[in-house]
User: What shape does this take?
Amino acid sequence: MHENKIYYISQKEADKKLCEIKQRDEVFTVTWLDINNDDVFQKVIEEIPNNLSKTQQIKFGKEKVKALFKYDKTYPRWVQSPEWPIVNGKPLVFSHQEKVKGDDCHTYYYFYDEQTKEQTIVEQFG
Assistant: This one.
């Protein structure tokens, strides 16, 4: 016979675990950016000094993320989820975005490699 085990944790323990997860994720929370690249994520994590308080670690992490994800004048205003291109482990620089005249459904996001100047275009619908 198979026995199911049910484990209970207090609300305080649940809140603590949620807070720990949230603090870790807040390091990377920037409204115009969603980091899904493990290499970039790990690089930022490794650079955060352990001797800082949680608040200072979050601030440090956000500053590192903003320094990695560069833009010329302003950050992208995504119509869908962020799709920042990363080439060879390095985020490209955001140049600008534009909508197709007469077509409110397409938005193009222009990025370039800071060293090679090669351009990459991301297209979103919505």
Remarks:
- The first helix runs from residue 11 to 26.
